[in-house]
Amino acid sequence: MKVRYILALAAVAALLLPEMATAQRAGSIELGAVGNFMLYDDEIGIENAPGIGGRAGLYILPNLSAEVDWTYGEPDLSDPPGYQGRTQVVHELIQARLLYNLWFGENTALLLGGGYTYDNYSTPRRLAARGGGPGGLVGLRYRFSERFSMRLEGIGYYVSADDATEGIARPETFNLGAQAGLSLMLRDRTTTEIVELPAPPPDTIVVEREVEPDLPEGTPTQICLATGENVTVYITPQGDTLVGPRRVSVQNLGPGVAFAGEYAEGRSWFVNDEPVEFEEIEYLRSGGEVSLDCANIMRVGEFGGVPLFANVGSERPFETLYVPVRPGVWQAYQTDLAQVRGN
What does DSSP say about strands 131-143 and 108-121: parallel, antiparallel, or unpaired? Predict the structure, then answer.
């Protein structure tokens, strides 16, 4: 068998190589076996004929490759016998192109290629000289798996006329052909790319802080308690009394609220308007209820469980005593000192 046939069979044997990768990428290599049937221009003087060969390609982008096809055929002469009585010639076709795979399905792609094609008639003959020109390809690829695929293609190429060639002048020709082949994809070695992932965000801690509501508005006012101490309360525009750090309404506190000290309100002697006896002197209720400043009074004794107060600096016997009725409210009791002193 001729050396050229051995090379063609070697291309077919490439399909038996072990799988090297599983995904198409730039740098992948395509090897394949090709069979064609050429439709030669009548100007050449040879019959249409089949050929066989192989191809090799390198993907420079995921869907774009640079490839070379080589096929070998022995077409018959159209008007035998030829030179030295031969009835056939040897035709080697070399096609170099860029090939684009346009995928329109999971396993099917449209093939579009263009490049340079070279004719080589190497057997002695009385034919036009060899030459080359632009060529193109349109076809389909069907992928059986990630490494095996089948290709069906139509090709065409143009060779310009050349009257200056040695021997017989080369006529202008345009040849067509059909190709079919099987391909094996050999992919470049997978490189491991180390990607540094950003550090995970820290755990989110939600801190809830209870915001105290604004304190109710009120006018600060001091009241004098039965203990002889002034305390501050707040009087709202509506007349409500607010007490404590949170300014709670006395009405909201209800009967459970209690101010320090003992008060006359509710006691029988106060309700019945009985006189207050102090140091053997009777004091009678005088006037209405009043407010006092604890800084201006002093505790001088007690009657019926309720403390008695007199003005600061006053001397015994006292003319006026003050009884705490309820927090901040006082009742004056007076006696006739002239009568007391006369006795």
Answer: antiparallel
> What does the block give as tokens for 73?
């055929």
Domain 3-186 has CATH 2.40.160.20: yes
Neighbours of 148 (CB within 10 A): 15
pTM here?
0.48
Q: In a structure prediction context, what are the per-residue pLDDT tens digits for the chain, which is 343 residues long? A: 444 544 444 444 433 333 333 336 888 999 999 999 999 888 877 889 999 999 999 999 989 999 999 999 989 888 766 555 677 888 899 999 999 999 998 899 999 999 999 988 776 555 555 788 999 999 999 999 888 999 999 999 998 887 765 556 778 889 999 999 999 998 765 555 566 778 777 777 777 777 767 777 778 888 888 888 988 887 777 666 666 666 666 556 555 456 788 999 999 999 999 999 999 999 999 999 998 999 999 999 999 999 999 999 999 999 999 999 988 899 999 997 666 555 5
DSSP letter string, 72-121: EE-PBBSS---GGG--B--EEEEEEEEEEEEE-SSSEEEEEEEEEEEEEE
Domain extents in the chain: 3-186, 219-256, 268-342
